[in-house]
Design brief:
Layout lengths: L1 H17 L25 H14 E2 L2 E2 H16 L7 H18 L2 H6 L3 H4 L4 H31 L3 H27 L6 H29 L6 H21 L8
Antiparallel strand pairs: 1-2
Length: about 250
């Protein structure tokens, strides 16, 4: 029986790789619990479907991969504790780099390679927002779970901690918008070109926020690193909303 299960998993992974799909690592014993979505009609069913999937494969809204990343970031903060200046910036930079991969492997991208989201008779923008809702809520919870302990470990101020969490959430929105932007240009057979365009797009989208954050910290008398986090959060949110609005027709056609 174990041999058959191993062969089935291997065949599924090979098939997913040939079709350019994202293979999701599911637990061997899935926590089923109650059956059915319970709520949701039309586009909103996408969000409740994601909630059920998270409940069965993770802890509340947080996936196992995100929990692993959170533990690594918190552990890294112990090494940065000795750095009196810039510790929270260093931890934030590392967390943002890891967040890039967690957002890229989120449920939204896996949803786009299936036909169901395109067949729902709802406006494409409404479907897009509901498909992103679960990821943004999970990333918000994850930001609090990471940077509250980090703040205690490195001794960051409450003000820096709050705006660090807001900046973290804004990068989640920005990376999600980058995923949408890449999808608009269709699929490319070369995985190298896909990842290059993905990282290049995110770099271009992130630069204005970094520049604004450094500018606010340099020219405004704001305490701590408030200027950096505030500038990045404001610019990231505005750019993300602009990209999502311009790409609002993504889910109209497969």
């Amino acid at each position: 029986m174990d041999l058959l299960q191993t062969a089935e998993l291997a065949q599924s992974a090979i098939t997913a790789k040939k079709e350019g799909q994202l293979a999701e690592a599911s637990p061997k014993n899935v926590k089923v619990g109650k059956i059915g979505l319970g709520k949701g009609l039309g586009a909103s069913a996408i969000y409740y479907k994601h909630k059920v999937e998270n409940r069965r494969s993770g802890v509340f809204f947080i996936s196992n991969m995100s929990l692993l990343f959170a533990v690594i970031i918190i552990a890294f903060s112990f090494f940065m504790k000795m750095a009196e200046d810039g510790a929270i910036i260093a931890v934030f930079a590392m967390g943002t780099y890891m967040q890039l991969f967690s957002v890229a492997l989120g449920r939204f991208n896996r949803e786009l390679i299936k036909p169901y989201i395109y067949l729902i008779p709802e406006p494409p923008l409404k479907k897009l927002l509901y498909s992103l809702k679960e990821g943004l809520i999970a990333d918000s919870i994850e930001a609090v779970l990471i940077f509250v302990p980090v703040a205690f470990i490195i001794g960051a101020s409450p003000l820096d901690t709050v705006f660090c969490i807001l900046a973290r959430i804004s990068f989640s929105l920005l990376f999600t918008a980058g995923n949408v932007l890449v999808r608009v240009f269709g699929t490319v057979s070369s995985k190298v070109l896909i990842f290059f365009f993905y990282f290049f797009s995110l770099l271009v989208l992130a630069i204005p926020g970094v520049v604004l954050g450094v500018g606010l910290m340099t020219f405004l008398p704001l305490p701590g690193f408030l200027g950096v986090f505030l500038g990045m959060a404001l610019c990231n949110v505005l750019l993300s909303l602009l990209v999502l609005y311009l790409c609002r027709g993504l889910l109209q056609y497969a």
